[in-house]
Design brief:
Layout lengths: L3 E7 L2 E7 L8 E7 L2 E12 L8 E6 L22 H14 L9 E11 L7 H14 L9 E8 L5 E3 L3 H6 E10 L2 E12 L1 H29 L13 H10 L1 H12 L7 H11 L5 H23 L14 E5 L7 E7 L2 E10 L5 E3 L6 E3 L1 E6 L16 H14 L12 E10 L4 H15 L9 E9 L4 E5 L3 H6 L2 E7 L4 E8 L6 H25 L13 E6 L5 H5 L4 H10 L2 E4 L4 E6 L2 H15 L7 E10 L2 E7 L2 E6 L20 E9 L5 E4 L3 H16 L5 H7 L10
Parallel strand pairs: 5-6, 16-17, 27-29
Antiparallel strand pairs: 1-2, 2-3, 3-4, 4-6, 7-8, 7-9, 9-10, 10-21, 11-12, 12-13, 13-17, 14-15, 18-19, 18-20, 20-21, 22-24, 23-24, 25-26, 25-28, 26-27, 28-29
Length: about 725
């Protein structure tokens, strides 16, 4: 295989492509690089699995830590483990962009693997990976109607300008993180998180991406001519038109009744008709062929009802939303909870609050990061009346959780305003479409029930599409059946002020900009209507946190005194934890996060920390513990980490020859500060001011009579004038 290289322009950046050097036994492989980011994309076509009723496509994204010059942090495991959520999201982004462009009835196994070889930590690799996969499929012999082009778009918060191919730093400061894949003049996939951007901004971004697609496609076409090979011959499976026409003609009423039953979530509605058709056509056709023809007839009738009459399977008009209801505070011991219902879709959402120490640490090739707001989504089999596996979350569950998290993230108060780690879990109780958007709505109410001061409530809605090339109908709040028979699943979440998250998948060869514009406008109307229903249940965050939630406060200590709070080997901070029952976390800026089960524990810990870093003043009095005895006096801990010296002359108004005559280690004594020197050393006294004067007078009298003086004491303890030591 000869080596071919080329360059592709992508929104102002140049991407270098190479094939024929690595992974030469794959159907095709591409090494794509942009700056110091390098990824390898391989595509392989396997055997036909005819018994499947779906396309067996696998897309894997392998983030190798070596690509960022890192070794896994675990002391016991150094090999990369399960894919991170971010890797799963990148794989899903690629899958959703390429899947619709394979032949509809294609049943060959196809596996796509993307491996990071080098990452610079400055620029994301997801769009580069998508372009590498698109190019590999295009030059391969695998049947595919690509290429697709991917874009990442941000919006400068200061200027309002759109940013193409933004860096990680620019994404962090951006009002929008939008990823789009396009083919010619249509859009294939949309994924976005945003800080209340307008629908007009999104439409502008879509339009700009479509305009930029042309130059990238021109470069990809040139590279394909140089490096591509002929596609394998593939013939679509011939449709059993006689069988299909017979069902449509002779069982029109039965098919129409099945569609209406599907609208009422009667899942087995077609079973009696199927049995009748098998009896009639079973000698000539297989059961699978009959079932396929019946499913096609049901789908066609449902689409015909929408396009011709504007009536959906459940009787709604295209813009209608199913009945919405909600409850807040449904669970007694959780920190926040809510139940959101939309039709037969039901989401129970729970909020848990914890200390900053519970932030999630994410290890990746680009570097480590922490996350204080986390959203998890679970949809067990019983939600659709089925049995199935339980275990690790599926990719779909990871993706839906990430979408709901992205929708609410801009509304979460900052750590300074609300110093908690927040975990929200959406437990789907029943599913009939749009569970991810039900999670968004339920999570909003759950967060408010927990007392999280979110900036504004967020609601979400899933939009669908039915298009027969002559007419297009956009559907609001689609059901599971409509998702199955429709052409698009477009999820949009936002507040009254703008959009916060989007996700679009299609089953056709793209959606034009005008259709998306119409869907965005119709979604906004539905979103606002749902918000009204939600706010009728709980109009604002609760004033107080749950009594079962931890109490957290933040105090700040001077940076140069952080070590005093921690102590040698963590001794002092462990002592504070033991005494108070609270948890302490300190960052490099001197912020101390104190969390505990109740206000008493938090208050106690705060007093102890503030005592450590405060400046001791002459005249202050303390009850302290004797920690050490020396010949010249006793050291007393006046508060954790801070000791002072009580000289023997200040232990009693009478003469003291040995400190042990007065105190023992562990004794509690009352002391007063008499001096603080320039480096912070503290001199203490156990005498009252009156006794201090008496002792001082007595010392003077003894000295005048030639009695006890300091030189005598030095000799008693083995000391003496330096000149006498030799």
């Amino acid at each position: 295989m000869h080596i071919s290289t080329g360059e592709v322009r992508l929104a102002g950046q140049t991407i270098k492509l190479e094939t024929g050097k690595l992974a030469r036994q794959a159907n095709a492989s591409i090494v794509a690089s942009m700056g110091d980011n390098v990824v390898l994309a391989t595509v392989v076509m396997g055997r036909v699995i005819e018994e499947l009723d779906y396309f067996p496509l696998q897309v894997e994204f392998q983030e190798k830590l070596y690509s960022g010059g890192k070794i896994k942090g675990s002391r016991w495991v150094k090999r990369e483990g399960r894919p991170s959520d971010e890797s799963v999201m990148t794989a899903r982004l690629i899958d959703r962009s390429i899947r619709p462009l394979f032949p509809k009835d294609f049943r060959n196994e196809v596996q796509v693997i993307v491996t990071t070889l080098s990452v610079d930590g400055t620029n994301p690799v997801d769009i580069l990976s998508l372009l590498a996969v698109s190019t590999a499929l295009t030059i391969s012999d695998i049947p595919w109607k690509g290429p697709v082009v991917g874009f990442r778009v941000g919006k400068d918060a200061k200027t309002g300008n759109l940013l193409f191919n933004p860096t990680f730093e620019e994404i962090t400061a951006s009002q929008m993180d939008l990823m789009v894949s396009t083919v010619k003049d249509k859009l294939m996939m949309v994924e976005a998180g945003a800080n209340e951007v307008s629908e007009a901004t999104l439409i502008e971004a879509f339009s700009r991406c479509q305009a930029l697609t042309k130059e990238t496609l021109a470069d990809l076409t040139a590279f394909t001519k140089k490096a591509g090979i002929a596609k394998v011959a593939y013939e679509a499976v011939a449709k059993e038109t006689v069988l299909y026409d017979g069902i449509v003609k002779n069982y029109k009423k039965e098919v129409s009744d099945i569609v209406k039953a599907k609208g009422q979530l009667l899942r087995q509605a077609e079973q009696p008709v199927m049995e009748k058709l098998v009896d009639i056509y079973g000698e000539k056709y297989t059961k699978k062929q009959i079932g396929t023809a019946l499913s096609e007839a049901i789908s066609a009738e449902a689409r015909r009802m929408i396009l011709a009459r504007g009536i959906r399977a459940d009787g709604r008009k295209p813009e209608d939303i199913r009945p919405v209801s909600a409850e807040a505070g449904v669970l007694p011991r959780t920190h926040g909870s809510a139940l959101f219902n939309r039709g037969e879709t039901q989401a129970l959402t729970i909020t848990t609050l914890a200390s900053p120490a519970m932030e999630q640490l994410i290890e990746g090739a680009e570097g480590d990061e922490t996350k204080r707001y986390i959203h998890h989504y679970y949809m067990p089999p019983y939600t659709v009346g089925e049995t199935g596996r339980l275990g690790w979350p599926s990719r779909r569950e990871v993706g839906h959780g990430a979408l709901a998290e992205r929708a609410l993230a801009p509304m979460i108060p900052s750590a300074e305003e609300f110093p908690y780690t927040i975990r929200v879990v959406s437990e789907i109780m029943s599913s009939n479409g749009s569970t991810s958007m039900a999670s968004v709505c339920g999570s909003t109410l759950s967060l408010m029930d927990a007392g999280v001061k979110i900036k504004r409530p967020v609601a979400g809605i899933a939009m669908g599409l039915v298009n027969d090339r002559t007419k297009t109908v956009v559907l609001s709040d689609i059901t599971g059946f409509e998702d199955h028979i429709g052409d698009m699943d477009f999820k949009i979440a936002g507040t009254t002020e703008g959009v916060t998250a989007m996700q679009m998948d299609v089953k056709v060869d793209g959606v034009d900009g005008e259709t998306l514009k119409s869907a965005l406008e119709q979604a906004k109307s539905g979103r606002l209507a749902i918000l009204v229903k939600m706010l009728a249940v709980l109009s604002q965050p609760r004033d107080k946190l749950s009594p079962f939630a931890p109490k957290i406060i933040i105090i700040t200590v001077p940076v140069d005194r952080i070590g005093e709070v921690i102590g040698p080997g963590g001794k002092i901070i462990r002592s504070i934890v033991a005494q108070s029952g609270a948890q302490l976390d300190i960052d490099d800026t001197g912020k101390v996060f104190i969390s505990g089960p109740d206000e008493e524990a938090v208050g106690k810990a705060r007093q102890l920390v503030e005592a450590i870093v405060r400046e001791v003043q002459v005249g202050e009095e303390f009850d302290g513990k004797v920690t050490r005895l020396m010949g010249f006096g006793a050291f007393v801990e006046i508060y954790p980490g801070k000791e002072g010296l009580v000289h023997v002359s200040r232990m009693s108004s009478n003469y003291v020859a040995d400190p042990a005559q007065v105190v023992q280690i562990g004794d509690m004594v009352h002391v007063r500060v008499v001096k603080v020197d320039e480096i912070g050393r503290v001199d203490l006294t156990m005498l009252s001011a009156e006794d201090e004067q008496k002792a001082e007078s007595r010392r003077r009298e003894n000295q005048d009579r030639g009695g006890y003086n300091q030189q005598d004491r030095r000799r008693r303890f083995g000391g003496g004038e330096r000149r006498n030591r030799y």
